[in-house]
Amino acid sequence: MSGFRLRDITPRGLYARLAALVAGPVIAIFAFTTVYYYQEHVKDVNNKLSQSIAREIGMVVDFCEQTARDSAIDAYLTQQLGLTFDCVYPGKMAWPEQARAKFAYRHVLRKQLDNFTGAAVEVRDMVRGDMLDFRIRSQNDEVIRILIDRKRVLAANTHFTIVWVLLGTLIMLATAFGFLRNQVRSILRLTEAAKAFGRGREVDNFRPSGATEIRDAARAILDMRARLTAFADQRTAMLAGVSHDLRTPLTRLKLQLAMLEQTDEIAGARADLDDMANMLDEYLAFASGADSEQPDRVRLDHIASTTIDRIDGARLVDPVAVTVMARPAALARTLANLINNGVTYGDSCEVRLIKGPRMAEILIDDNGPGLPEDKYEDAFRPFHRLDDARTQNISGTGLGLTLARDFAHAHGGDIRLQDSDMGGLRVRLRLPY
C-alpha cells in the first residue's frame, strides 16, 4: 500500500495549483480573522453595552417603583441616560406589528438583563423606529416602558466590517487570478507551440510573452527549432543530392551488366543494384516529401482505403471515419510501406482503424512468421537484417520501418510492434487528431 502523497489530493493543472496556492492561505486567514473578530471583539463589545443598558434599566425601574416620583428626577434621568421611559404605560404589553421579538445578539442582552434587573423584562426591536422597546411589569402591577436607541444597546452592524473585508479579499483574489491566468496562458501557448513544432507544423503569430523566465524558455525553444530545422533541411538536401548523384552511376552499371553474359554472378549483381536503386528511390521520396509537403487535414480512412485498393492481399476491416492532421503523400507512402511489408511476409494482411479519445490508431496485422519481442526495436534500425524466419528469401532496403517511425514522430505520434491475432506481426501506428 502506497503512502500518502500530497499530489494525490492537489490539482494537477498549473493554473489550478497556483490558484489553490493563492486562495488557500487568503481564505484561511480571512476565516480565522472573522472567527476571532466575532468571538473576541464583537462579543466583548456587546457584553459591555448590554451591561451598561441593563444598569440604566435597573435605575429606571427603581425610580418608577417609588411611591412618590419627582418630575425633576424624571427629566434628569431622561436627559442624562439618553433614553425615554414611561413609568405607567397605558399600552401595557400590546406590541405594534413591526415589533420584532428576535434580533441579532438578543441572547447577550437577555443574559445581562437577567443579571442586573430583578423584574422580568420583555424587549422588542422596533424595526421602523430604529429603537428597542423594553417593557417591565413593576411591583404595583403597572407596565414600565423604556425606549433606547438600538445602536446604544448592541453593536449589531459590525458584520458590515466583515463584508468590506470580504469584498477586499475577493477583489484581491480576482486580481491575483487574472494575473495568474495571463502567466499560465503564456505557458499554455508555449506548450501548444512546442507540440506544433514537434509535429512539423507552424504556429501563426507566436511570440514570446509572459514573465521573463517564460520568455526565455520561448526564445530557447524557437532557437532550438531553428537549429533542428536547419539540421533537418541540411540532412534532407544532402540525402536528396547524394541519392540523385548515385542514380547516374547505378544506371551505367545496370547497362554494363545487361550487355554481359548473363550468369548467376551477373544476376546476383543486378539484384544488388536493384536493391540499391530501390533504396535511393525511398531516400528521394522521403527527402522530397519532407521538403515540400505541408500538413493538412485528411481523412485517414479514405487514404487507407485508396492505398489498400492498390495492394493485393490486403483488406480494410470495419472502416471508421477519422480525420487527422498529416502530410497526405507521406501518410500514403508510409501506409503503403507498412501494408506491403505485411503482404510480403505473410499471405494476407488486415488493416483496422481505431478512433481513440485523443489518438487515431492504424493496426496492420499479417499472418507471417512474426518477430520475437526482443527484436522489436531492432526492426526500426536502418539497414538492419532481422532473423532468418522473417527475412528469408525476401529482399528489402531495411528502411521501411525506420521511415515510418520518422513519419510518426514528426506528426506527434508513435509506432509500435506487437504480436498479431493472426499469428504474425502487428504494426500499431498512432497519430493525434
Write a short abstract of this structure.
The protein has 433 residues and is an alpha+beta fold.
List the helices and strands and how they pair.
Layout lengths: L13 H51 L6 H11 L2 E3 L12 E2 L5 H11 L4 E6 L4 E7 L5 E7 H4 L5 H40 L13 H48 L4 H29 L3 E4 H10 L4 E4 L5 E4 L1 H18 L3 E7 L3 E8 L21 H4 L8 H11 L3 E6 L5 E8 L1
Parallel strand pairs: 7-9
Antiparallel strand pairs: 1-5, 2-3, 3-4, 4-5, 6-8, 9-10, 10-12, 11-12
Folded structure, characterized:
This protein has about 425 residues and is α+β, with helices and mostly antiparallel strands. Helix content is about 55%, strand content about 15%. The strands form 3 sheets. The chain has a 5-stranded antiparallel sheet with strand order 1-5-4-3-2. Strands 7-9-10-12-11 form a 5-stranded mixed sheet. A two-stranded antiparallel sheet has the order 6-8. The protein starts with 13 loop residues before the first helix and ends with a strand.
**How are helices and strands ordered from N to C?**
HHEEHEEEHHHHEHEEHEEHHEE
Uncertain parts = 387-393
Main beta-sheet strand count, sense and barrel state: 5 strands, antiparallel
> What structural class do helix, strand and pairing data support?
alpha+beta
| Total count of strands | 12
Across the major sheet, the strand order is 1-5-4-3-2
How many helical elements? 11
User: What percentage of amino acids are in beta strands?
Assistant: 15-25%
Average predicted confidence as pLDDT = 78
Shape: rod-shaped
Radius of gyration: 45 Å
Which labels suit this protein?
12 strands; 11 helices; 433 residues; alpha+beta; five-stranded mixed β-sheet; rod-shaped; five-stranded antiparallel β-sheet
